[in-house]
Amino acid sequence: xxxxxxxxxxxxxxxxxxxxxxxxxxxxxxxxxxxxxxxxxxxxxxxxxxxxxxxxxxxxxxxxxxxxxxxxxxxxxxxxxxxxxxxxxxxxxxxxxxxxxxxxxxxxxxxxxxxxxxxxxxxxxxxxxxxxxxxxxxxxxxxxxxxxxxxxxxxxxxxxxxxxxxxxxxxxxxxxxxxxxxxxxxxxxxxxxxxxxxxxxxxxxxxxxxxxxxxxxxxxxxxxxxxxxxxxxxxxxxxxxxxxxxxxxxxxxxxxxxxxxxxxxxxxxxxxxxxxxxxxxxxxxxxxxxxxxxxxxxxxxxxxxxxxxxxxxxxxxxxxxxxxxxxxxxxxxxxxxxxxxxxxxxxxxxxxxxxxxxxxxxxxxxxxxxxxxxxxxxxxxxxxxxxxxxxxxxxxxxxxxxxxxxxxxxxxxxxxxxxxxxxx
Length: 424
Known about the structure:
This protein has a five-stranded antiparallel β-sheet, with helices on both faces. Strands 7-9-10-12-11 form a five-stranded mixed β-sheet, covered by helices on one side. Strands 6-8 form a two-stranded antiparallel ribbon. The longest helix has about 50 residues, at about 30-80. Helices cover about 50% and strands about 20% of the residues. With about 425 residues, the chain is an alpha+beta fold. The chain is elongated. It starts with a helix and ends in an 8-residue tail after the last strand.
């Protein structure tokens, strides 16, 4: 019975958690074999327990680090002025910052427990069905949402950005991030600024028109009686009046743009006649820089379109003016116009300073001017090409360019013969 008692004692020690205890029975019989197996088992359990304890220690350290990182991230999210929240793949909100309350008010407490359907319901309650229709449509297609929402009561303008969160290279969507920004004050300031620009520009327009008419009269009617010096000063007055008028028109149109769209009207006119007029307007500048102009015979083209005449004039003038301003002395400007199906295509090319690769993506953005352009023409506004793009696209056309630095640029403008604009 002594070996049995020893085995039972050893089992009780192991059961109490003493995995370092060894039974150590020396006999070679079944009791010794069983004791040896118990000792090996406790040794194996001891090692596994130690490994498990080390793993638990590491896990606690990582958990503490993760909690600290989560706390730091939450502090960063709370410090931003935007409302931010994130959904998991099941649609449940996993993260949100304290600024969400500024956008959802009393509904904020419901967001934390919401699923995808209830979250959409909360969005509808806050922003209205019409405002959220496009949001839900794009979210259902796993697309990025970029939308400005106007709420009437209480009056607010909210910018909503939402994009899918994907897992690494797999491309599997694992959730969606939402960002809400209150742009009410910003938009109100923009309206005030645009109103001031509009009023100031209208006040400048009348005297500039009178000056231009006077300069045109002197150029055409009195040129035979003026000496070369006086003719030169009249040309300077005329050219600078054109530049100021162009700038005023740019400012007026910039103040009328809403969400990259511009209000249009419809006129029936000959686009080839506009090009002839523009070439004539810049005759003295072309002559003073000794630019070689290559243009088709526009005498009997009769390319009639139904678009906004003043806006199309502004587009073509801006592109042609850039070709003149950024051409070197004794450079070449080529103008081409042709009808392609239901479209008119105008091409204006020069061999001037061109556009660098790093600047190409910014050419049609607001207030952008390259360093070379600023050195060559210090008076540009950085708005003309932005306006060209808005006007052309609002008219149902498109504008694009090809350019090589120090070798020149070619701008292409494609316009429909007739466009029913939604902004008329």
